[in-house]
Write a structure and sequence with these properties.
- The chain is an alpha+beta fold.
- The chain has helices spanning 84-87, 93-116, 208-216, 233-239, 261-270, 288-293, 296-321, 342-357, 370-380, 389-403, 447-462, 536-551; strands at 3-6, 16-22, 29-30, 35-40, 45-49, 54-59, 66-68, 72-77, 128-131, 141-147, 154-155, 160-165, 170-174, 179-184, 191-193, 197-202, 360-368, 409-411, 416-418, 424-426, 428-430, 433-435, 438-439, 476-480, 499-513, 516-530.
- The protein has 4 domains: 3-90, RNA polymerase II/Efflux pump adaptor protein, barrel-sandwich hybrid domain (OB fold (Dihydrolipoamide Acetyltransferase, E2P)), CATH 2.40.50.100; 128-216, RNA polymerase II/Efflux pump adaptor protein, barrel-sandwich hybrid domain (OB fold (Dihydrolipoamide Acetyltransferase, E2P)), CATH 2.40.50.100; 261-291, no CATH class; 359-557, Chloramphenicol Acetyltransferase (2-Layer Sandwich), CATH 3.30.559.
- It contains 12 helices and 26 strands.
- The protein starts with a strand and ends in a 7-residue tail after the last helix.
């Protein structure tokens, strides 16, 4: 019997999916577990496997097309089986196509009549309006970091249109249409809410003004607006053929320079020669922070230091006999405004909400780390094994949460929500702020697995390769500033978590042991708690259990 396969819901926020690629074609044999297609969701492109055996009899959504969740995706059954009833279930797709064709003919006749009257509110056939995409579940606004295509250039399906900066990362946004980039609605560096007009793609020679007029008058999406700014005199002069002095694509010897589009743009604006920079990105790629940290004064100082060293020695005797000149400060007060990134805006919004809504209180405890240091040293002497103190803290926290489920809760207005699973968020500092990758089912992982997974997630976060799904679902959070020498600090709760653990540096200090003062190594932990879900005694008991695990690491291996 034939089986109907619908568009799956591959994430909790997914409402529509796009078939990025079919891995099976109509008529192919399909077995349970085979990958049917790659489905693009609102968060990532994911493989979708078949749960049935048979032959792929029907494809309901072609490659590049999207449809709501539960729409007909495919039909799998026996070869030669009659599936017309399944295809025509409810309103058949064929009937819909006929109705659509009738509507198109009606639209064409209407548009022809309106053309006669020189009045039109319809978007011409073949013209696609591209709006600001929602690239993460929390994204409300996006910033165009860089356009990879310019107005007038030909665009093919799959080409990268632009780099879009969201509240979590800068992501490449590809085109789902073929044509010419007729209009750019948001210039580089400009921001707009989700669903605002981003670009218009269509056949060459299309009347863009008519399309924009149609959008404004309601012929297209009422949400889109043109935010394109007027060209500055500098931009106009460059259009006329003037060249810049910075070559951001080749070195002086003719070799290629690898740099991100944003870095090239910043270098051009600041007049920096990219051939003088060494990139800190992958494979020596020049990135944003290389431009921001570049200082011509340092380069000049290196060149001048040699020539001035000989003369400074002879002048020092003369200067020593002269009276010291009175210092008179010279200069002007200056400020530089740097536009807040989407990530920074979201961090500010979420932390303010957490601090205002959750009644925070803080518990501190000091842990003897002598045994932990000895255990870590022994573990790291094993071949191909390396763990950090942060890995020990994560493992101990996960095991302590299992013994104190009240700490692994979430506050809801009507009920308290107990998480039966343990997903630990690990705060990671990135160039533009702070992200929290989530280590899922941390209590089930060994120390070496925790170390490897944390390193992988942190690397993805710093390289802006992390997926939104890898930063969701935490039930408890760990923030560690010990590597910066910070001995103790407090953190703001990462809601909807009830607690966040702040980890300080391990310090060597005198401690009292068995009535004697000896040299020991201690570490301070601070637990920020939401008083609505975790009372003081509950938080204190959790910290006592956590301390026991850290001071006796062998108990974590049981």
């Amino acid at each position: 019997m034939a089986e109907v396969v619908n568009m799956p819901r591959l994430s909790d926020t997914m409402e529509e999916g796009v078939v990025a690629k079919w891995l099976k074609q109509k008529g192919d044999k399909v077995e349970e577990g085979d990958i049917l297609a790659e489905i693009e969701t609102d968060k990532a492109t994911m493989e979708f496997e078949s749960f049935h055996d048979g032959v792929l009899l029907h494809i309901g959504i072609e490659e590049g097309e999207g449809a709501p969740v539960d729409s007909l995706l495919a039909i799998i059954g026996e070869e030669g089986e009659d599936i017309s009833d399944l295809i025509n279930g409810g309103a058949s797709s064929e009937d819909k196509k006929e109705e659509d064709s009738k509507d198109e003919k009606d639209d064409e006749s209407t548009s022809e009549e309106e053309d006669v009257n020189s009045e039109t509110n319809e978007i011409p056939d073949g013209v696609e309006v591209v709006t600001m995409p929602r690239l993460s579940d929390t994204m409300e606004e996006g910033t165009v970091a860089s356009w990879m295509k310019k107005e007038g250039e030909e665009v093919q399906e799959g080409d990268i249109l632009a780099e879009i900066e969201t509240d979590k990362a800068t992501m490449e946004f590809e085109s789902f249409h073929d044509g010419v980039l007729l209009h750019v609605g948001i210039e580089e560096g400009g921001s707009a809410p989700v669903d605002e007009l981003l670009a218009i793609i269509g056949p060459k020679g299309t009347d863009v003004d008519a399309v924009l007029k149609s959008l404004k008058s309601g012929g297209g999406s009422s949400a889109v607006k043109s935010t394109k700014k007027e060209k500055t005199p500098k931009e106009e002069s460059s259009d006329k053929g003037e060249t810049t002095t910075t070559d951001s694509s080749t070195t002086s010897s003719g070799g290629r320079i690898f740099a991100s589009p944003l870095a090239k743009k910043m270098a051009e604006e600041k007049g920096i020669d990219l051939s003088k920079l060494s990139g800190s990105g992958e494979n020596g790629r020049i990135v944003k922070k290389d431009i921001e940290s570049y200082s011509p004064a340092k380069e000049e100082a290196k060149e001048e230091s040699t020539s001035t060293s000989s003369s400074s020695a002879s002048e020092s005797k003369v200067e020593s006999s002269q009276p010291a000149a009175t210092y008179e400060p010279v200069g002007e007060e200056q400020f530089e405004e740097v536009k807040n990134s989407q990530m920074r805006k979201t961090i500010a919004k979420r932390l303010l909400e957490s601090k205002n809504n959750a009644p925070h209180y803080y518990l501190n405890i000091e842990v003897n780390m002598d045994h932990a240091m000895a255990s870590r040293k022994q573990i790291n002497e094993m071949p191909e094994v390396k763990i950090s103190f942060n890995d020990l803290v994560i493992k101990a926290s996960a095991m302590a949460l299992r013994k104190h489920p009240q700490v692994n809760t979430q506050w809801k207005d009507e009920a308290m929500r107990y998480a039966k699973h343990i997903h630990i968020g690990v705060a990671v500092a990135v160039e533009e702020g702070l992200v929290v990758p989530v280590l899922k089912f941390a209590d089930q992982q060994t120390l070496t697995q925790i170390g490897g997974n944390v390193k992988s997630l942190a690397g993805k976060a710093r390289n802006k390769k992390i997926q939104p799904s890898e930063m969701e679902g935490s039930t408890f959070t760990v923030s560690n500033l010990g590597m910066y020498g910070i001995t103790d600090f407090t953190s703001i709760i990462n809601q909807p978590n009830s607690c966040i653990l702040s980890v300080g540096a391990i310090v060597q200090k005198p401690v009292v042991r068995d009535g004697e003062i000896v040299v020991g190594h201690t570490m301070k932990l601070t637990l920020a708690c939401d008083h609505r879900t975790v009372d003081g005694a509950t938080g204190a008991e959790f910290l006592q259990t956590l301390k026991t695990y850290l001071e006796n690491p062998v108990t974590m291996l049981a």
